[in-house]
């Protein structure tokens, strides 16, 4: 939850910025939608309608309006006044009044360059001088594609320039906040590469562009010689702001995991705003402005709902997200009500949108900071957990290595070389042997699956093998005994295995297999493979296994392996087509060199390991 001191500070700032100097009242106007020339206006051939008090909005569908109002000098000396139209985006304005000598006409064209203006100000402003106690009638023709309004103010010279100074300070603070947050969060994005930060930076950029166009600062400060209408670019920036804040919200609230439907709805809305941004140069401007009446409340309610839902699902940083949208909403409402004259003027009302968006982006930044802190804490916890898991895996690896033979057989009739490469720290492959004077028994097994669970079950295979020691001279009986034990000891897991018994007196190899790959004998530079079919261990307790015999010769080299040695190398070929071409060039090497070279040659073919690898070679002497 947001702490109370932060809320109190926030409310204090809102109260503080709500204080300010009173602006001059807007003049009471009369208006007419008749299509008249200026000469007809002065000839009193126009029927004027009286506007309600403080009314100056005329809707979105009227292309133009004539208005008239009076300016009075109540003092006994000439006075200079500034007439300001608070619409920097208006298309065209024609101002006119009658003096003693003639009729004065002043024009404004929103597409002309800023340097062409009579007074260099972001709004259309004009100077006029009134004689003592003079009351002057001003006529204005306003043409605009979009919202049609006449928000005139009449200033005394000193008051107007004092207001300009405060206005620039307020807007300078606003743009400074935007730029500082943009730079700060851009640097964070470069460091952490979190998508929410880049979407937030894009939102800040579009927001800054949006208000520079909306407030008339773009032409004044960045392009005083540009002759163009800012409206289509304003609509692009507004729709882009809604698009980027939607993308930011998707990433920040993690809606894909929290609520798939909300995620898809916001994503659909984001695409819609992107399309609207592209159509800003085509669609009529009044259509675009009317669409904002609906799109902003829609996006506000949608993202507020998404933030509230995420908060209920445990994403606590969403509290800042909700408060950010709330401050923007308050700012927009205060700005609208102030302009409509429904509430007394205040600094907060005058700069409601700027203040609301400033607090919004600050709170968004705080939300990102809080989320980053949570991510760092989670990352630290994950690292600690990973360290603990690595320690456990290392312990498990040591335990597994203890279930494998700690040394190779010391037998004058053969030498043995083993390579054991688990896919992870530990694996499901297993081998063991019985070494006695008249013979030698070797088992190799592969538990289905990988990792810790397979390694744990491989210890069960060792127990099964050692319990079947009485059958060490009979491969099929030993495999059958292991099968009976594993059928009662393993659950939802099976084992491929093979047992080889070498009788040194008869120089014969007896073997039995349970789904294990064929083994290879290299003799006199020739390669031959042998296999014995059999059901995997752990499936049927009463399965009867076959046993086969192969005569041996001194100098034979036996290669016994699990399927990880050759699988995923060339899927279209069988094991013989893969292994034989790699074995043949190195058959004359010593056992150590052969073993190492074969693994290296196969590793070069293997793009990625997907299984445990065990390779055993036996040289018969």
UniProtKB/TrEMBL annotation:
The chain crosses the membrane at residues 168-190, 197-218, 233-253, 265-285, 291-311, 323-345, 351-369. It comes from the Bacteria. Residues 411-620 form the PPM-type phosphatase domain. InterPro entries: 7TMR_DISM_rcpt_extracell_dom1, 7TMR_DISM_rcpt_extracell_dom2, Bact_Sigma-Reg, PPM-type-like_dom_sf, PPM-type_phosphatase-like_dom. SUPFAM superfamilies: PP2C-like. The keyword Membrane applies. It holds the Pfam family SpoIIE. Keywords: Hydrolase, Membrane, Transmembrane, Transmembrane helix. Gene3D superfamilies: 2.60.40.2380, PPM-type phosphatase domain. This is Serine/threonine protein phosphatase. It comes from Leptospira montravelensis.
